[in-house]
């Protein structure tokens, strides 16, 4: 197992991605027309910060949320984390609504052709909304108090995978670019 201090401090920026760490969000993948596009953790050792982010996508828009934190390496395998703020980015409205032909809902195939015919004339209105929302600033939400503090104990670390546990649960993360993500 690599030393956490060497891994974290050996490079300026490291990205991890994990679907297992946000299991409640995986349920989103079972909601018709809404899917998890990306889950990512960016570690910046230069500024000793972490940013956890997720992007959800629908036929109409993409939604991005993130939480930023500072961290301190306490031992070769433990870090102390202090969350600072959450960020809700304005939705990215798609220039066209991309409804599938059909969806599966509770084991039944639902034909969306009638809905697609209704949506097609609304494309120009959707494009106008996209232009007006695109310039908005993200909403920053401070994360105050004791609940913002956390710890993380790395139990396994190699060039592709990090397994950690903390007061928030068990986290299995693959480094971006790892062949593990191609499976």
UniProtKB/TrEMBL annotation:
Keywords: Plastid, Transit peptide. The keyword Plastid applies. Its main location: plastid. Residues 15-174 form the Plastid lipid-associated protein/fibrillin conserved domain. GO terms for cellular component: plastid. It comes from the Eukaryota. This is Plastid lipid-associated protein/fibrillin conserved domain-containing protein. It holds the Pfam family PAP_fibrillin. It is found in: Plastid. InterPro entries: PAP, PAP/fibrillin_dom.
């Amino acid at each position: 197992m690599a030393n956490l201090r060497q891994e974290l401090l050996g490079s300026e920026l490291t990205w991890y991605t994990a679907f297992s760490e946000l299991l409640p969000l995986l349920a989103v993948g079972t909601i018709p027309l809404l899917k998890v596009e990306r889950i990512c953790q960016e570690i910046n050792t230069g500024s000793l910060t972490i940013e956890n982010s997720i992007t959800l996508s629908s036929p109409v828009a993409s939604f991005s949320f993130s939480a930023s934190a500072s961290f301190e390496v306490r031992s070769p395998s433990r870090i102390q984390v202090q969350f600072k703020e959450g960020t809700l980015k304005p939705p990215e409205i798609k220039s066209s609504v991309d409804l599938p032909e059909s969806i599966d809902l509770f084991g039944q195939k639902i034909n969306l052709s009638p809905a697609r015919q209704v949506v097609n004339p609304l494309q120009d209105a959707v494009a106008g909304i996209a232009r007006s929302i695109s310039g908005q600033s993200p909403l920053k939400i401070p994360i105050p108090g004791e609940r913002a503090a956390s710890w993380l104990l790395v139990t396994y670390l190699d060039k592709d995978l990090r397994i950690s546990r903390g007061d928030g649960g068990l986290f299995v993360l693959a480094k971006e670019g790892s062949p593990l993500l191609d499976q």
